[in-house]
Amino acid sequence: MGEVVKITDVTKVYTMGDQRVEALRGVSFTVRQGEFVAIMGASGSGKSTCMNMLGCLDVPTSGEYLLEGVNVGGLSRNELAEIRNNKIGFVFQGFNLLPRTTARENVELPLVYARMPAAARRERALAALERVGLAGRADHYSNQLSGGQQQRVAIARALVNEPAIIMADEPTGNLDSRTTVEIMAIFQELNRHGITILMVTHEPDVAAFTGRHLVFRDGTIIADTPNPSPAVAVTHEEAP
Amino acid sequence: MTTLWQSLLIALRALRVNKMRALLTMLGIIIGIAAVIAMVAIGAGASKMISDQISSIGSNLLLVLPGSTTSGGLRTGAGGTPTLTYDDARAIQTECPSVENVAPTVRGSAQIVYGNQNWSTIVMGCTPEMLVVRDWPLTTGRNISQSDVDGATKNCIIGQTVAENLFGDADPIGKIIRIKKIPFTVIGLLDHKGQSPQGTDQDDVIFVPLRTAQRKLFGSQFPNTVGAMMIQAKSADVLKKAEEEVAALLDQRHRIGPSRERDFTVRNLSEILAVSEQSSKVMSILLGAVASISLVVGGIGIMNIMLVSVTERTREIGIRMAIGAKQRDILLQFLTEAVLLTTVGGIIGMGLGVVGAMAVSKIMQWPTLISTEAIVIAFLFSAGVGVFFGFYPARKAANLNPIEALRYE
């Protein structure tokens, strides 16, 4: 299987005034297509910085980042925006849906910026909502949905452009344990269909649903362990 | 195109969310545009009134007035001495190549009687050229002819005001009126002419043949003299030349030399009136300029509210950027919102301005003139204000760092 993400000796240094903060100090790893990887670590370990870089929201100070074989370093803001639009789907901790906007319109948003005609947009958005089990809620406004439903809309939005990889930053951080399992079930289902998923989390329970654990500490990877038998997320509705 | 349409939809939604705020923000533009439209309409109305009055006098006109003379150390004022004659007028007509028509006049006031009605008005002795020079058609009847002038007939043509006061609605043609107790036959009725630039009623007048006036009505010790001459040049281009020719000819005929002061004055009427037209134009530009200041103030209000809006929606901007909005998408979104605010405000302002101008002309009896030109310019200007004052906030939004914007609480 192909390498979706390949980063080699990546560093990220922030300068705040005369203070230098080394958020990443030489990180290298590869994510192959179809993997479900959990990035773990305490806050300040560099996992969020790494995630922002992998999501093309930020560029590394040094080192090389290949996304589907394309070197992302040195691209302009607009080129990065295009890559985010085509190849990456984001799921955030705080859902980050647009307020006063329906579920369908939220899901359509990446397609709007991809300049897709309205009819095709609508069709794709409805299909994505169906995949996350929200076909009946397409015309609900984001504030009319529960937290779990909002996160499912966000997942549909991440899916709709058929990205190379889904980046999820603490996707269950704002959810209760039951909803957490629901969301993880959706991720596992998507992963079974071949979608590559990278998920930042600090909860071992959540990481247990993934196939590989990358552990960060002080800007470096201290452990990269496969999880040969991930926990299977079973939702209550599906339980006998 | 789709992008622009999308931006418009997003902008409409954003404005719907903050209806009150949008309205208050627009108010500055509404007032500004309404003021500009109303002020320009009032200014243009005044300017048109003046230019109408100018053309009501006639075009390309010179006025020759008898000048002052000095007699025994005493100087009379302009027009104080009868120095111009009917022969002068004829000489000008034949000898000045740039002159089209000459209309010598004699004027005085007189009491007119018809039946049991009487009226005091201006009586002018003139030649057939008068109506040509003044560009003044007749409603009914005929003009004074050269044979009327030569034969000093007791025919007259009357203005609308005189006709109303003596005859009411009845047809005046063929009726006999008495001017200074002398019976005259009405042979023509003049069209309505309106106010002169000085505000006098031009329709309150009776024209009689020149010689009749000289000999029978306002007989003086110099029977051949005329009061003033209106001279029409062949075109506006030769007006100056005509003025010089007339002056030179009269200098020669009146034997004016270096030692003798001129006993006549030549005035260029169009020039005098052009000055007053100019001043009314300056006035309307000034009014417009004052009104534009309120537009600028309105624009600053737009900029202020757009900056607030960008800050409020930082997180939304972050989300849009994360899922693929380019900088120009964000720029366009906020610019569209600003332009929408100003153009909607502009359209409302236009409506108010037009209504305001009409109210002013109705209530205060001021003439106003609403030109489509002013409306189009005002509309483009309001859109321009949106672009100008919306650009800075929109660029600020587009330059946000997506990571920081996403983290914004």
From TrEMBL, chain A:
<dbReference type="GO" id="GO:0016887">
    <property type="term" value="F:ATP hydrolysis activity"/>
</dbReference>
<keyword id="KW-0067">ATP-binding</keyword>
<feature type="domain" description="ABC transporter">
    <location>
        <begin position="5"/>
        <end position="239"/>
    </location>
</feature>
<keyword id="KW-0547">Nucleotide-binding</keyword>
<dbReference type="InterPro" id="IPR017911">
    <property type="entry name" value="MacB-like_ATP-bd"/>
</dbReference>
<keyword id="KW-0813">Transport</keyword>
<dbReference type="InterPro" id="IPR017871">
    <property type="entry name" value="ABC_transporter-like_CS"/>
</dbReference>
<dbReference type="InterPro" id="IPR027417">
    <property type="entry name" value="P-loop_NTPase"/>
</dbReference>
<dbReference type="InterPro" id="IPR003593">
    <property type="entry name" value="AAA+_ATPase"/>
</dbReference>
<dbReference type="InterPro" id="IPR015854">
    <property type="entry name" value="ABC_transpr_LolD-like"/>
</dbReference>
<dbReference type="GO" id="GO:0005886">
    <property type="term" value="C:plasma membrane"/>
</dbReference>
<dbReference type="GO" id="GO:0098796">
    <property type="term" value="C:membrane protein complex"/>
</dbReference>
<comment type="similarity">
    <text>Belongs to the ABC transporter superfamily. Macrolide exporter (TC 3.A.1.122) family.</text>
</comment>
<dbReference type="Pfam" id="PF00005">
    <property type="entry name" value="ABC_tran"/>
</dbReference>
<dbReference type="InterPro" id="IPR003439">
    <property type="entry name" value="ABC_transporter-like_ATP-bd"/>
</dbReference>
<protein>
    <submittedName>
        <fullName>ABC transporter ATP-binding protein</fullName>
    </submittedName>
</protein>
<dbReference type="GO" id="GO:0005524">
    <property type="term" value="F:ATP binding"/>
</dbReference>
<dbReference type="GO" id="GO:0022857">
    <property type="term" value="F:transmembrane transporter activity"/>
</dbReference>
UniProtKB/TrEMBL annotation, chain B:
<dbReference type="Pfam" id="PF02687">
    <property type="entry name" value="FtsX"/>
</dbReference>
<dbReference type="InterPro" id="IPR003838">
    <property type="entry name" value="ABC3_permease_C"/>
</dbReference>
<keyword id="KW-1003">Cell membrane</keyword>
<dbReference type="GO" id="GO:0005886">
    <property type="term" value="C:plasma membrane"/>
</dbReference>
<dbReference type="Pfam" id="PF12704">
    <property type="entry name" value="MacB_PCD"/>
</dbReference>
<dbReference type="InterPro" id="IPR025857">
    <property type="entry name" value="MacB_PCD"/>
</dbReference>
<feature type="transmembrane region" description="Helical">
    <location>
        <begin position="330"/>
        <end position="354"/>
    </location>
</feature>
<feature type="domain" description="MacB-like periplasmic core">
    <location>
        <begin position="23"/>
        <end position="248"/>
    </location>
</feature>
<dbReference type="InterPro" id="IPR050250">
    <property type="entry name" value="Macrolide_Exporter_MacB"/>
</dbReference>
<protein>
    <submittedName>
        <fullName>Multidrug ABC transporter substrate-binding protein</fullName>
    </submittedName>
</protein>
<keyword id="KW-0472">Membrane</keyword>
<feature type="transmembrane region" description="Helical">
    <location>
        <begin position="22"/>
        <end position="46"/>
    </location>
</feature>
<dbReference type="GO" id="GO:0022857">
    <property type="term" value="F:transmembrane transporter activity"/>
</dbReference>
<feature type="transmembrane region" description="Helical">
    <location>
        <begin position="285"/>
        <end position="310"/>
    </location>
</feature>
<feature type="domain" description="ABC3 transporter permease C-terminal">
    <location>
        <begin position="290"/>
        <end position="402"/>
    </location>
</feature>
<feature type="transmembrane region" description="Helical">
    <location>
        <begin position="374"/>
        <end position="392"/>
    </location>
</feature>
<keyword id="KW-1133">Transmembrane helix</keyword>
<comment type="similarity">
    <text>Belongs to the ABC-4 integral membrane protein family.</text>
</comment>
<keyword id="KW-0812">Transmembrane</keyword>
